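Record Transcription antitermination protein NusB, 137 aa.
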Amino acid sequence: MSARTKARKRAIDLLFEAESRELNAGELAQERAERPVTPAPLNPYTITAVRGIVAHWSDINDALTTYSQGWSLARMPDVDRAILRLGAWEILYCDDVPDEVAVSEAVALATQLSTDESPRFINGLLARIVEVKPTLV
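=>
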């Protein structure tokens, strides 16, 4: 597993934990960077991703809600929301990650972490975000 893939996984973990505990994900990431709870410190990309997602939270949520075709964010599994937010942020706001890589990594994370139906759903929704990207940014 590449360092960037591990950083994405840690970002998903932080987003999931923050939502579960009703905390600000950016503040949780900062806290974990300053006082790690694991032997390995947070990868800088994890912190960048979480901060980027928090900075664009409303726009990311709006895009996901608009293009999810009948699925509200609240109806999605918690881990899927975290994966989708990361994937959407990478597609819309992270210039150094090709769109195809963002989608592929999100699908791989969903395969590893979520339900059997999640990879297909996440692939379809993020592919739609890629299609409409020029109208969103």
